[in-house]
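So, can you check what follows?
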Amino acid sequence: MTTFLAYTSPAAGHIFPLVPGLLELCRRGHDVHVRTDPALVAGLRRAGLAAEPVDPRIATIKPGGEDGRNGLRAGYRALLRRGALDGPDLERALVETDADVLLVDTLAFGAAVAAERSGMPWAITLPSLLPLPGAGIPPYGLGLAPASGPLGALRDRIGWSLVTQAYGRALLPGLNDLRAAAGLAPMRSALDVFTPPDRVLVLTGAPLEYPRTDLPANVSFLGASSWDPPDAVPGGPAYLAEDGDPWVLVTCSTDYQGDEQLAVTAIEALRDEPVRVLLTIADAAHSSRLPQAANVRIERFVAHGPVLRRAAAVVCHGGMGIVQKALSASVPIVAVPFGRDQPEVARRLRECGAGRVIRRRRLSDGRLRAAVREAIADRDAAADAGAVLGAGDPPGAFADHCEDLVGAPRALTA
């Protein structure tokens, strides 16, 4: 039996995709410990995981600021402030659990430094797209379509250089301070964060990931896994099963980013359509000011799994979690990206033909209404994409790669 310690950022989108794989490790007889958002611990325990909260001070530091809209530098400053806490927090958890293998979330920078310094086998878990260059891969984060030929290669080379420099300016000064305090050598590029771990476990795959011919040896695409907390009502709320028009799920980010505009526009766009709308508002501010409509039901949170089994379409911000859940359920998507990795996720969604994308600045009642109609009419494309995304056994692949870490050779440190 091996003892695994999974340490994640305090966000549902960073722990929920791991849960099926962690439960598979438990099923195989391993001892699995989790450190994550204090608000999520009870549900994880009910699922059968040995979960404890991260240092509660970590969750009070918001990468998006109070309004959810901080830029790149401010966002990384917040994550690195967390890093000053999550490194010591991981070290305490390591003592408490006597773990053999560490699984560290991609945004827990201090915990990654502590894992590297420990000399133990460890992996980065990445519940989103892989932000690494490669042949034919557009520069990350800009939402650009793939380009071919000499001009496309030139665009990508220049674009990756600019993107890497921008991320480096935001990340490296604070990260290298953490590394220096731990006695580790400085990193020269923002891309170097993926070099030290024995594995980088990417919890997605085709068709959202582009084909790669030059993937680093320590990177693995595992496919998408979805999970809902066990305290969710089996089958979802009773009103989902009532006779009526088909459901459209509209959802704001669970990690607040000031996306109330999406909720307001969706209500106005769909109030006279032959659908019922379930809007999950999460922590979006001013929810009491949302317009009302007879066919719209507003909830702070409803487990999305039961809704997706009945949904004709999803309207969302383009977050990786809801996009993968919807595609896995063969539900077409209309994405309105607001920030973070969402423009890139939306581009991948458009490229695989499984949804419609509306730029935030162009969002209007009419455009959203038309996009939802088109998405519902083109459900087969979402089903095709979902079949590819869910192929194989993602939880089993996760567990296999975690087991491979036992006694893994050490990766080179930058």
Summary: The CA atoms of residues 84 and 110 lie 6 Å apart. The first strand starts at residue 3 and ends at 7. The domain at 3-223+392-404 is CATH 3.40.50.2000 (Rossmann fold).
